[in-house]
Design brief:
The complex is a heterotrimer.
Chain A lengths: L2 H28 L5 H21 L2 H18 L7 H23 L9 H14 L35 E8 L1 H5 L4 H9 L3 E7 L17 E7 L5 H7 L7 E8 L1 H14 L3 H7 L8 H14 L17 H24 L2 H6 L1 H25 E3 L1 H4 L2 H12 L3 E6 L4 E3 H22 L3 H6 L6 E10 L2 E8 L6 H10 L11 H5 L23 H10 L3 E7 L3 E9 L4 E9 L2 E6 L3 E6 L5 E3 L5 E5 L2 E7 H4 L12 E7 L3 E7 L1 E11 L11 E6 L5 E5 L1 H5 L2 H4 L6
Parallel strand pairs in A: 6-8, 13-22, 17-19
Antiparallel strand pairs in A: 1-3, 1-4, 2-3, 5-7, 8-9, 9-11, 10-11, 12-13, 12-20, 14-18, 15-16, 16-17, 18-19, 20-21, 21-22
Helix pairs in contact in A: 1-2, 1-4, 2-3, 3-4, 3-5, 12-14, 16-17, 17-21
Chain B lengths: L1 E5 L3 H13 L3 E5 L2 H10 L4 E5 L7 H10 L8 E6 L3 H9 L4 E5 L3 H11 L2
Parallel strand pairs in B: 1-2, 1-3, 3-4, 4-5
Helix pairs in contact in B: 2-3
Chain C lengths: L3 E2 L2 H7 L5 E9 L2 E6 L3 E6 L13 E7 L2 E7 H4 L12 E7 L2 E7 L1 E9 L3 E2 L9 H4 E7 L2 E6 L1 H5 L7
Parallel strand pairs in C: 3-12, 6-8
Antiparallel strand pairs in C: 1-4, 2-3, 2-9, 4-7, 5-6, 7-8, 10-11, 11-12
Classes of the chains: A alpha+beta, B alpha/beta, C mainly beta.
C-alpha cells in the first residue's frame, strides 16, 4: 500500500469513528442535552472530516463539510440556536456526510447537487445570523507600510555605483520575542532574498543600570539588494510577526539613504561603550542567552521519558488474527496431548497428567484473553441502525422509532462483521412487515409511532441480540399457507404456533408475493439464518399477533474455539457443540414413540422430543447395532429439543472451528468443520439446522 | 531535531509524522493540549506544531499554558490553521504562537516554515 | 511421496512466449488429463478424507490442508467411471479455482507438458458420456490424447440437490 493509500485508510477509519460519535452526540442533543461540550465536539468532528477531505482533494465532501462546519461554529458560539429545525437539518446532514465519505472511499462521484438543499440552508442560516463579520474569503491583510514612492531619475548618472534596493526598518516589540520569534532568523531570511547590509539601531539602548534583561531595545535597518528583492517578498518574511513590530519598507534611492544611515549610526552609543561603563557581571542578554541555550541543547542528551496517559494502542488486526490462530492451534495440540493419555499412562505418569491439566487451564485462560482483545462493543454495528430506520420510515411512510440497549456489550470482531447484514435484514423485516401504517396503528389503539427495540446482552456462554417490534406480529395463516404451497410443509402437517413462526427461515421462503424493494431483493430470511449458523449462532422467532414480533439471535462469545462432544456416525467423526447437549441416553434405554404424523419422537420426562437418525439423515451406513447406539439429547434456545441418534460417543474435546464454505459450500445439517486431534477433519453438527429440518417432521425416520 | 505534534485527528498526526520523519525529524505526538503539556514537561523539543480545535485543551489554551510557564520562551510553536479561520490564527498568535501552517499542508511548505522559525 | 509444493512464480518467469502453456498431466486408468500448472498449489499423497453427507458420489470428502478444510473430488467418479479405491500411492492435486482451493483425486501424476495454445483443440460434440462438458479442450501429445480440464465444471453441482 502506498503511503497515500495508508493515510487515506487511516482517514476513512477515523471518519467512521467520527460519524459514530456524531450520531451519538446528535441523539443526545435531540433529547435536550445541548451542553457546549457537545456542540464543540460535533464541530470538531466535522472540522476533522473536512480537514482530511481537503488533504486528499475530496471536493464534494469538502464543499459540503465546510458549510456544515461553519454552521456548527455559529451554533457553538451561540450565534444560531439549536432548535428543532436545525437539529433535524444536522442529523440529515450527518447522513449526507456519511454518503460523501462512502463515495470518496469507493472513488465515486455523487451528483453535483447532492445535499444542495441542506447546503443552501446552512449558508442561509449563517447569513441570517451573522453580525456583519464573515471569515470566509477574506483576502490576506496587507501590511501597513509607510510607503512613500520616490522618484528615481533613471537618466541621471550619479557618480559612484548606484544600487537599487530596499530599505527595511525593523523594530521588534516585546511580543515578538514572547512568541519565540527571533530577529536573527528574520534577518537570515532576508539574506536569502538578496545581498543585505545590516545596521543595528541602538539609540534606545539604555545604560546598563537601566538595562532590563527582557527589555526590548534593539532595532535594525536592513538594506537588501538584488533582483529578487521586492516589497511583497520582503513583507512575507515578516508575516508571522505582523503587529508585533514596527516595519517600514521603502525603496532605496542610492546615496541618499546611505547618508541617512551613517548619520543615525554616529548618534548611537556603541555597545562596547555601554559594556565598558560597568565593571560588574552583565546579566546575559537575550542573544547570549540563546547562545548558551543552544550549547546546552547539544550537550544534553534528552532523556527518553515514557509518555504518560496512553491507555490504548492501535494494533493491526492481522497481528491479532495471527495470535488468535496460534492460540487456536495451541488448543488443538493441548487437546491432542490429553487425548493420547489412556488410563494406563494416566496412572503411570500422574505428574504428567497434572501438568497437562494445568496446561489445559492455562490455555483456556490464554484463549479467553486473546478473544477479549478482539472483542469490540456492538456499538459499531448498532450505530448504523438509526439511520437505516429513518430511511425505512421515510420510504414506507410509517412512523418508526429505534431504541437501542446494551451497545457496549462486547463481541468478537469477526462476529460483529458478520452481524451487520443479518441485523439490517431483520430490522428491514420489522419495518416492512411488522410495523403497521400510521392509520392502522391508530385504528388499533396503538401509538402512531412504532418502536423497534434492538438490544444486546451476554447470557451464559452466548451473546443475545434481540430485535423486537410492537407491530402486527407474524401472519400465521398466510405463512402456513405459503409454506404448504411451496411444499415446505406437508398438507396435513400440524405445526405449533412457534414452528409456524420459524418457518420464515425456511429456504426459499418469502412472505411477500412481490419482492419488496426493501427486504426482498431475492434474499430471504433463510440467508440470514444460514449466515448466523455459519458463525455458530442461532435465531429464534416469537410472535404475538397484533402485538409484535421478537427475533432472538444467539451468538457464540468466541468464534474460534468450541467445546464439543466427539461422536461417530457411520464410521465418520462428527462433533456436537457441548453447549447444545442436555444429556446422552443409551438407545436401548430410550423410549421412542411415533406421532400421528409418523414422525419419530423420544419420550423423556413427560416431553415429546423430535428425533433424527444421523446415519439416515447423512446417508451413512449403519455400522453399529441399534441397541448399542446412543441418543444425544440436544437443546437449542432453551425450549426446542432434538434427539440425535449416533453410533458411538468418543468423548469431549475442544476444537477450533474451521469454515466449510471457504473452499466448498454450505451443507444442510453441518455447521462447519474442525480439525481433530489426529489431524483429520471432523464435521460439526448443526443442531439448530437439523431441528428446523423438515425431514424431522416427516415420516422419513423409520426406526 | 525533535518536534512535537499536537492534533486530535490521527490522520493529520500520521501525515505530519510521515513528512517530518522523512525530513529527518524525531516526531512525538499528542492528541490534545493537555497531553502536549505532559509530554513537553518530560522531553525536550526544538519546535512544536499544534492544531487549534482539540478536546480537553484546545490549541489556544495550550499555547498560553506553554508560554506562561516561563520555561519555553524561545520554543517556536507553529499553529495548524485552515484558510478561512483568520480569527483563530490571530488568537493563536496573540496567545504566543510563533507562526502558522495552513492545512491541508504542502509537505515542502511545512518544512520550509519550520526552517524559518528554528535555528 | 512427500507433499510437493509448486513454486509458480519461477515457472511463470520461464514462460517466455505468451502463446505457450505449461500443463501438469495426470492419469485416471488409461486416460490422461491435465490442468494449467498455474492453478496447481500442491501435490500430496492420498491420506484419507472425511466424507461429506448429502453430496454427490464424486465428492470424496474433505481434508485438512495446514489448518484449512479443502474438499476432494474423485476425478474418476466425476467422469462417471466409478469410484476410486484410493491407496497411499494415489495422489491429490490441490488447485485454486477462483478464490477457493479444491483437491482432485487422481491415480498418478505423469509429467509436465509445455504446449502452445494452438495445440488445444475443441472437444468434439458427439461425446455421449458427458465428458465434453468437463473439458476445456483436447491436446495431442506424443500421439496421446490429453484432456484439458475445466475446473469450474468439475467442482460444480457437488451438492445433492433436488
Amino acid at each position: 500500500m502506498s503511503d497515500l493509500d495508508e493515510f487515506k485508510a487511516t482517514y476513512f477509519d477515523e471518519c467512521s469513528e467520527l460519524l459514530i460519535e456524531l450520531e451519538e452526540q446528535f441523539v443526545a442533543i435531540e433529547e435536550g442535552d445541548k451542553s457546549s461540550d457537545r456542540m464543540n465536539a460535533v464541530f470538531r468532528a466535522i472540522h476533522s472530516v473536512k480537514g482530511g477531505a481537503g488533504a486528499f482533494g475530496f471536493a464534494g465532501l469538502v464543499g459540503f463539510a465546510h458549510e456544515f462546519e461553519t454552521l456548527l461554529d455559529y451554533v457553538r458560539n451561540d450565534k444560531i440556536e439549536m432548535n428543532e429545525e436545525v437539529i433535524t437539518l444536522c442529523i440529515r446532514s450527518n447522513d449526507l456526510i456519511a454518503d460523501f465519505v462512502e463515495a470518496a472511499k469507493v472513488g465515486e462521484e455523487l451528483d453535483e447537487d447532492y445535499g444542495a438543499k441542506e447546503k443552501a440552508r446552512f449558508i442561509s442560516l449563517v447569513k441570517e445570523n451573522s453580525d456583519g463579520e464573515n471569515d470566509d474569503g477574506e483576502p490576506m491583510e496587507e501590511f501597513d507600510i509607510d510607503f512613500t514612492p520616490v522618484m528615481v531619475n533613471v537618466e541621471e548618472d550619479v557618480a559612484g555605483a548606484t544600487k537599487d534596493g530596499w530599505l527595511v526598518k525593523f523594530t521588534p516589540h516585546r511580543e515578538l520575542y514572547a512568541s519565540a520569534n527571533d530577529p536573527l532568523l528574520l534577518l537570515r531570511e532576508l539574506a536569502e532574498i538578496g545581498e543585505i547590509e545590516v545596521k543595528a539601531v541602538l539609540n534606545n539602548v539604555p545604560t546598563l543600570p537601566d538595562f532590563e534583561p527582557f527589555g526590548v531595545y534593539c532595532a535594525w535597518e536592513i538594506s537588501i539588494f538584488g533582483e529578487a528583492a521586492n516589497e511583497k517578498i520582503i513583507t512575507e518574511v515578516f508575516e508571522f510577526v505582523d503587529g508585533d513590530c514596527d516595519l517600514e519598507i521603502s525603496q532605496i534611492v542610492a546615496q541618499e539613504s546611505e547618508e541617512l544611515l551613517d548619520e543615525e549610526l554616529e548618534d548611537a552609543p556603541s555597545f562596547a561603550d555601554l559594556a565598558a561603563a560597568i565593571p560588574v557581571d552583565v546579566p546575559a542578554t537575550k542573544k547570549e542567552k540563546s547562545a548558551t541555550k543552544k550549547a546546552d541543547n547539544s550537550a544534553k542528551k534528552p532523556a527518553k521519558a515514557p509518555v504518560a496517559g496512553v491507555q490504548s494502542i492501535r494494533v493491526d488486526l492481522d497481528k491479532v488474527d495471527r495470535v488468535v490462530n496460534m492460540v487456536g492451534e495451541l488448543v488443538i495440540t493441548q487437546s491432542m496431548l490429553t487425548q493420547q493419555m489412556d488410563d494406563h499412562l494416566k496412572h503411570q505418569y500422574q505428574e504428567l497428567v497434572r501438568g497437562l491439566e494445568v496446561l489445559a487451564t492455562t490455555t483456556r485462560g490464554l484463549q479467553d484473553s486473546v478473544m477479549a482483545i478482539r472483542a469490540q462493543p456492538v456499538k459499531s454495528v448498532f450505530s448504523r441502525m438509526p439511520r437505516l430506520v429513518r430511511e425505512l420510515a421515510n420510504k414506507t411512510e410509517k412512523k418508526i422509532k429505534l431504541e437501542t440497549v446494551g451497545e457496549n456489550t462486547e463481541i468478537d470482531k469477526t462476529v460483529i462483521e458478520q452481524l451487520s447484514d443479518p441485523l439490517t435484514h431483520m430490522i428491514r423485516n420489522s419495518a416492512d412487515h411488522g410495523i403497521e401504517s400510521v392509520e392502522t396503528r391508530i385504528a388499533n389503539g396503538k401509538p402512531e409511532t412504532g418502536t423497534i427495540r434492538l438490544s444486546a446482552e451476554q447470557a451464559g456462554g452466548s451473546i443475545l441480540i434481540i430485535i423486537e417490534d410492537d407491530g402486527a406480529g407474524i401472519n400465521r395463516e398466510r405463512v402456513l399457507q405459503l409454506a404448504r404451497d411451496k411444499g415446505v410443509v406437508g398438507e396435513d402437517q400440524q405445526l405449533s404456533d412457534e414452528q409456524i413462526d420459524n418457518l420464515i427461515f425456511a429456504p426459499g421462503f418469502s412472505t411477500v408475493e412481490e419482492v419488496s424493494d426493501l427486504s426482498g431483493r431475492g434474499v430471504g430470511m433463510d440467508v440470514v439464518l444460514s449466515n448466523i449458523n455459519k458463525i455458530g449462532g442461532s435465531v429464534l422467532v416469537k410472535s404475538w399477533p397484533g402485538k409484535g414480533t421478537r427475533m432472538t439471535l444467539r451468538l457464540p462469545l468466541t468464534l474460534a474455539v468450541l467445546d464439543v462432544m466427539l461422536v461417530k456416525v457411520g464410521g465418520c467423526p462428527y462433533v456436537i457443540p457441548l453447549s447444545s447437549i442436555v444429556e446422552t441416553i443409551q438407545n436401548s434405554r430410550a423410549d421412542f414413540g411415533q406421532l400421528p404424523t409418523g414422525a419419530k419422537v423420544l419420550q423423556v420426562r413427560g416431553e415429546y422430543v423430535h428425533s433424527i437418525d444421523l446415519a439416515t439423515r447423512f446417508e451413512l451406513p449403519n455400522e453399529v447395532d441399534n441397541k448399542d447406539r446412543f441418543v444425544v439429547l440436544c437443546e437449542t434456545d432453551g425450549t426446542n429439543k432434538l434427539a440425535i441418534i449416533v453410533d458411538s460417543i468418543i468423548g469431549q474435546q475442544q476444537v477450533v472451528i474451521k469454515s466449510l464454505e471457504e473452499n466448498f459450500e454450505r451443507i444442510e445439517g453441518i455447521a462447519g468443520g474442525t480439525i481433530l486431534g489426529d489431524g483429520s477433519v471432523g464435521l460439526i453438527v448443526d443442531v439448530q439446522g437439523l431441528r428446523n429440518d423438515p425431514s424431522v417432521h416427516r415420516k422419513a425416520n423409520a426406526a | 531535531m525533535r518536534i512535537l505534534t499536537v492534533d486530535d485527528s490521527r490522520t493529520m498526526l500520521s501525515m505530519l509524522q510521515h513528512t517530518l520523519s522523512s525530513a529527518g525529524f524525531e516526531v512525538s505526538q499528542a492528541e490534545d493540549g493537555q497531553q502536549g503539556l505532559d509530554i513537553l514537561s518530560k522531553e525536550e523539543f526544538d519546535v512544536v506544531i499544534t492544531d487549534i480545535n482539540m478536546p480537553v485543551m484546545d490549541g489556544i489554551e495550550f499555547i498560553k499554558n506553554v508560554r506562561s510557564s516561563g520555561k519555553y520562551q524561545s520554543l517556536p510553536i507553529l499553529i495548524l490553521t485552515t484558510e478561512s479561520s483568520r480569527e483563530k490564527r490571530d488568537q493563536g498568535r496573540a496567545a504566543g504562537g510563533t507562526g502558522w501552517i495552513v492545512k491541508p499542508f504542502d509537505p515542502e511548505k511545512l518544512i520550509s516554515v519550520i526552517n524559518r522559525v528554528v535555528h | 511421496m512427500e507433499a510437493l509444493h509448486i513454486n509458480n512464480d519461477s515457472n511463470e518467469s520461464e514462460i517466455a512466449e505468451a502463446n505457450s502453456l505449461q500443463l501438469i498431466a495426470f492419469s485416471i486408468g488409461e486416460e490422461t488429463y491435465s490442468v494449467e500448472i498455474t492453478t496447481v498449489r500442491e501435490i500430496r499423497a492420498w491420506n484419507g478424507a472425511t466424507p461429506l453427507p448429502n453430496t454427490r458420489e464424486f465428492v470424496r470428502g474433505v481434508i485438512n490442508l495446514r489448518g484449512t478444510i479443502v474438499p476432494i473430488f474423485d476425478l474418476r467418479a466425476r467422469f462417471g467411471e466409478g469410484q476410486t479405491s484410493p491407496t497411499k500411492t494415489h495422489v491429490v492435486v490441490v488447485m485454486s479455482v477462483g478464490e477457493k482451493f479444491v483437491g482432485i483425486l487422481v491415480d498418478a501424476v505423469s509429467d509436465i507438458l509445455t504446449i502452445s495454445k494452438d495445440d488445444v483443440h475443441p472437444v468434439p460434440e458427439s461425446n455421449s458420456s458427458g465428458d465434453g462438458e468437463l473439458l476445456r479442450g483436447i491436446i495431442t501429445h506424443n500421439s496421446r490424447m490429453v484432456g484439458l480440464i475445466d475446473l469450474q465444471a468439475i467442482v460444480a453441482g457437488a451438492k445433492l440437490e433436488d
